[in-house]
Write a structure and sequence with these properties.
By secondary structure, this protein is of the alpha/beta class. It has 20 helices and 12 strands. The longest helix has 29 residues. About 45% of the residues are buried.
Length: about 450
């Protein structure tokens, strides 16, 4: 059983792992939010509805306002509310879906539900993480400040965050555990999960986090980024170079000029989409570059449709901006010169695998961590989406379009773990974990 709560960025690596397990002859079922069921099914994996609509959550006041509040207490309350949102219904649904399963693999969002159900069923809960979310001394939770803190400060930042979240959700979690006949806990779930000894799969590349793989070792193996196979990408509707949008195919547009800068924000709808769009138009005009915009779930610049505003017409930008839906990153990104996105793990992986310098305009959650990672690796730059203006965007694009940054991005690409190797290693870990647990149970 593979349970995921979140957006497409959360679901896609799980789909890749599920497909690998199915290909090995296992019965694997995905549990995804209702608005992602077609995504999982389209990739050829049995998929069931689990939880509530991700799109509705992302459009809610809690996410659009409280999660972005300048008040840390307001942000913490929002994170806490998300942690226990629809908890009772999700637990009961997962208990039903996982009946007879050998293990529950679960992403970090909603890990509490998966762990509770695994305890009731007496099967292992195998965490699947897309970014460092456990205490360590290599990665700082202060990444949004753009500073490199000492190791002890990094470690302390995780301790404080874990404790604060636990104190904020303890009462609700106690109630949810009692519903399943489980005893209350006196420590965070991260500690409870760590004590089981089950490996926590880190589905991202160690090249971005110096020292982390050594620090965590086999208990939290960094296996590399996952991606979907070509047939799966076609099945979920990712358009390749022949996908049309406006006049002609995307291949025609790419062939008609210089390599563009890719822009995509996935499910992250900007607070001021019109202002952000104006900033990109201005930057494209002043730098003389073309933009390939993937609207994604957010629909960013979806009204552009290849047509220009009066300002861009006057500047000769009528065909400088191309807006498409979801694209096949493996096919399209190698035709680009740089990538600009919100810093989701999937977008980071796709851009770096294409050897592209990256600008991360983050909103929150793990995105500042990825922004700091590409900045420290000298393969990109980062700034908060809320501070993106035409001037700041032009400065950041100037940085990432530098020839030396491009060279370092190509070099990093050569060091990344191949996606088929990454998902193969993860599947091996799942099989080994189930095998060991079965032997222990029989003993």
């Amino acid at each position: 059983m593979i349970a995921v709560n979140g957006s497409r960025g959360d679901a896609q690596p799980a789909v890749a792992l599920a497909a690998e397990l199915v290909g090995r002859g296992h019965m694997a079922t995905l549990a995804l939010p209702p608005d992602l069921v077609d995504f999982g099914s389209g990739a050829g994996v049995p998929t069931e509805s689990y939880g509530s609509s991700t799109r509705a959550l992302l459009d809610s006041e809690m996410v659009r306002e409280d999660m972005r509040s300048k008040n840390p207490r307001t942000r913490l309350r929002a994170v806490s509310a998300m942690s226990v949102r629809d908890g009772r219904a999700m637990q009961q649904r997962l208990l039903e879906l996982a009946d007879g399963a050998d293990a529950i693999i679960a992403s970090s969002a909603g890990q509490e539900r998966a762990h509770n159900v695994s305890a009731v069923l007496g099967i292992p809960h195998i965490p699947l993480h897309y970014c460092p979310i456990r205490r360590n001394s290599s990665v700082s939770l202060l990444a949004h400040l753009g500073i490199d803190a000492p190791a002890f400060v990094n470690d302390l930042s995780w301790r404080v965050a874990e404790r604060a979240l636990w104190l904020a959700t303890r009462s609700a979690e106690t109630t949810l555990r009692a519903d399943l006949g489980l005893s209350p806990l006196n420590h965070p779930y991260s500690e409870l999960i760590g004590r089981t000894g089950v490996p926590e799969i880190q589905a991202y590349d160690p090249a971005l986090f110096d020292g982390l793989a050594t620090q965590w070792g086999r208990r939290r193996p960094l296996v590399g980024f996952f991606t979907l196979a070509a047939a799966q990408r076609a099945g979920v509707g990712d358009a390749g170079l022949d996908g049309a949008s406006g006049a002609g195919t995307l291949a025609d547009w790419l062939d008609a000029g210089d390599a563009p800068v890719y822009v995509g924000f996935g499910s992250m709808l900007p607070a001021d989409p019109d202002g952000l769009a104006d900033a990109f138009r201005t930057a494209a005009r002043r730098l003389g570059i073309r933009l390939l915009v993937s609207g994604g779930w957010s629909g960013f610049m979806s009204t552009e449709s290849g047509a220009a505003t009066s300002e861009s017409e006057a500047s000769g930008l009528t065909d400088a901006i191309r807006v498409v839906g979801h694209v096949d990153h493996d096919t399209v990104l190698p035709r680009c010169r740089a990538a600009v996105h919100h810093g989701g793990a999937g977008s980071v992986a796709a851009g770096l695998r294409a050897g592209l310098p990256t600008l991360i305009t983050w909103v929150g959650a793990d995105q500042p961590i990825w922004g700091r990672a590409v900045s420290k690796a000298a393969v990109g730059a980062t700034l908060p989406m809320a501070r993106v203006t035409a001037e700041s965007l032009i400065g950041a694009l100037d940085t990432i379009l530098d020839t030396e940054v491009r060279g370092r991005s190509a070099e990093l690409r050569s060091r990344l773990i191949a996606p088929d190797e990454a998902v193969h290693t993860a599947a091996d870990i799942v099989e080994d974990t189930v095998r060991v647990t079965t032997v222990r149970g029989a003993g």
